[in-house]
Amino acid sequence: MLLAVLTVSDRCSRGEAEDTAGPAVAALLCDAWPDSKIATALVPDEPDQIGRRLIDWTAEDARLILTVGGTGLGPRDRTPEATRRILDREAPGIAEAMRLAGAEKTPMAWLSRGVAGTRDNTLIVNLPGSLRGAQESLTAILPLLRHGLETMAGTEKHL
Question: pTM higher than 0.85, yes or no?
Fold first, then answer.
């Protein structure tokens, strides 16, 4: 199974900062799905580049794409808008679960604008860009992601 992590950061893409959150998210995915291939990429906060990478990975049959960064209120934070443009269906409960889990540690989590949804057979989720925020958000939703992927694949049996 192909899983993908897209870091969205102007500073990291220019080499002015090190991407720590993207590799940490990839490591968590590796632990959760050890037999999967993990693709990674880094793009600046440019909606067209974000959308193009999401579309390309979807076409390559990635089952899960996690974006890291660009979900705040900053003027260049456009990941949710770029994601929404390419989604077929939104899954708002995933983003709500991340914000709720994050708010237990900091009220600033409510400012995250991340979205989640599907495109074809791919589940796409926006994570925060900070190392701690990305790790905590992903940890909070891992059971949801597993169930969601199984449901999308038709392997989950509903009672």
Answer: yes
